[in-house]
Amino acid sequence: HQRIGQALAQDRDVPVAELARHFVHADPASPQARRYSVAAARDAAARLAYEEAVRHWEHAVAASGEAPADRIEAWLELAEARRRTGQGEAAGQAYLRGAELARAGPDPRGLARAALGLHAIGSRLWWPPAEVIALLSEALDTLGPGGNGDPLRPRVLASLARALAWHGLDLPRARTLAAEAVAAARADGDPPTLAA
């Protein structure tokens, strides 16, 4: 399969999913398996074929090696693909694994993405509100005051404000966070975060 994959890789008309299949079959932990699995997953997601993307991201996770950035990215993308297929519990577990790796990184943006993803699943169905709020709070703290201009910070602020308000927890803090998120979104010219 390795030789077939290498030969097919020279042909630009061969779908990346086929290349990924050959390289994964030859050696599921190889750099080529990771490279083509990531490309196939992104291609599938662009076509809204999230079930297919999940399979490719699972292969990319298996082949992500020891590079922290690759591992974090693969877990977060797998989580997002699972979320889009409606696999709430599996998506949440992948987001939590991504958060764990981001903590060890340390990768503040990865932690923020994991927290936002877990919140997007919905705490009413899958996760205790306290767990979602704790992860969002940790992400906000990790991004630091002002977030150094990071566009994820206003999104984390808005999500944390919504989670606190939705569950009737610490409404004064929710108002403060929401006001800060609105001000940051306006300053950044970020309509989606402003709407959130």
Low-confidence stretches: none
What is the assembly state of the chains in this entry? single chain
- Taking all residues together, what is the mean pLDDT? 86
Annotation field: number of helices: 11
Order of helices and strands: HHHHHHHHHHH
Rg value: 19 Å
Assign a percent range to the helix content. Answer: over 70%
In whole angstroms, the N-to-C terminal distance is: 48 Å
Q: What structural class should be given to the helix and strand makeup?
A: mainly alpha
For the sheet with most strands, the description reads: none
Inertia-based shape: elongated
Query: How much β-strand is present in the residues?
Result: under 5%
Count all strands and give the number. 0
Structure characteristics:
mainly alpha, 196 residues, 11 helices, elongated
